[in-house]
Amino acid sequence: MKITEITIRQLKMKLKAPFTTSFGTFHDRDFLVLEAKDESGIIGWGESVAFHSPWYNEETLQTNWHMLEDFLIPLLLNKEIQHPDEVNELFKPIRKNNMAKSTIEGAIWDIYAQQTKQTLAAALGGKKDKIEVGISIGIQNSIDDLVMLVDGYVREGYKRMKIKIKPGWDVEVMRTLRETFPDTAFMADANSAYNLEDAATLKQLDAFHLTMIEQPLASDDIIDHATLQKLIDTPICLDESIHSLEDARKAVELGSTKIINIKIGRVGGLTEAKKIHDYCEANNIPVWCGGMLESGIGRAHNVALTTLSNFILPGDTAGSNRYWEKDIIDPEVIVKDGYIEVPQQPGIGYEINRETIESFTVAKKTYQ
Ligand code: OSB
Ligand code: MG
């Protein structure tokens, strides 16, 4: 295949409800989508999960646009490639900027799956025809508000509740939830809000039988996490700290993580995500697919990845209706009884709604 044309769009979509983590609140989602066309006219779609500002990692939608325009697109345009795994190799001279790389790589995987007349899930080696999903719930104004929200999501059938925590919104919150919902699977995500001096507080969470605690310590740490894991029973799951197979291997060998949250953008694309998945499977480390408040395009890639066999814990890929009044794909991603059915059309398997995508577009540029 040869990519002959690429269009980048900047979109702005309003979240149905604000989403608050330990580092701030989102009201909108500003992000890039990328449309790539090959010489036969097949179109593939990718989404950049970078945010408007660099709080989750150092990338932003503007740095992604810069990397794509000035480095990544020139490396790829009009080059003959046989398989999407080659994109990873092609981008090796460019350090990091994983979310930018992943944006393009995802579109190439979509094209490759369509060319070979299979679903993206099948192209990746996935076998499931439905995936199990949980939901990530932001910090609320009161514990009562949170209990009401959780109750709704339990009724909707979500398979596990991920609760965002931060100092002061942790032990009492999780205690109340455990008492109110004795049989529900809960986990907590701190987005790096703690340090080792907080070990005693984090130890108190052991009493609530959480399936895991996600990224309690610094986003660039795998040393203190290993120390913390020796002090607490709740399994640690790393998110922000894992950018590659090498990071995963080192964290697992050090005992810093017992579970890994794989985000396609954070690790630079589906090829690297699959490598991490395979390494974890061989080393008995369960994985699950994280979320970045994606539109339907990113969501479709997450659904496909989650069909791989070692995605044995419910992920964060909730239904479109949890985020948006109207998503940019048809049909939207639907969760029923805690499952998403894997679409069976070739490629990402959902149609892009051109009219809707145009209505959210604030900037657009085509490269040939
Ligand atoms: O840490 O997993 C995270 C959202 C934005 C940035 C980071 C994270 C999250 C979520 C929400 O937890 C996942 C989702 O619903 O897409
Ligand atoms: Mg997280």
TrEMBL record:
Keywords, in A-Z order: Lyase, Magnesium, Menaquinone biosynthesis, Metal-binding
Mandelate racemase/muconate lactonizing enzyme C-terminal domain residues are 143-235
Q: Which catalytic residues are annotated? A: 164, 263
Describe which pathway this protein belongs to, using the record's wording. Answer: Quinol/quinone metabolism; 1,4-dihydroxy-2-naphthoate biosynthesis; 1,4-dihydroxy-2-naphthoate from chorismate: step 4/7; Quinol/quinone metabolism; menaquinone biosynthesis
Single Gene Ontology MF annotation: O-succinylbenzoate synthase activity
Which SMART domains does this UniProt record tie to the protein?
MR_MLE
Q: Which CDD domains match?
A: NAAAR
Organism superkingdom: Bacteria
Q: Which residues form the signal peptide?
A: none
Q: Write down a Pfam family by its short name.
A: MR_MLE_C
Cofactors required: a divalent metal cation
The protein's annotated catalytic reaction(s) are:
(1R,6R)-6-hydroxy-2-succinyl-cyclohexa-2,4-diene-1-carboxylate = 2-succinylbenzoate + H2O
Q: Which PANTHER family would you find in this protein's record?
A: O-SUCCINYLBENZOATE SYNTHASE, O-SUCCINYLBENZOATE SYNTHASE-RELATED
Record-linked HAMAP family? MenC_2
What family is it from?
A: Belongs to the mandelate racemase/muconate lactonizing enzyme family. MenC type 2 subfamily.
Protein function: Converts 2-succinyl-6-hydroxy-2,4-cyclohexadiene-1-carboxylate (SHCHC) to 2-succinylbenzoate (OSB).
Instruction: Spell out the protein name for this chain.
Output: o-succinylbenzoate synthase
User: Origin organism of this chain?
Assistant: Lysinibacillus pakistanensis
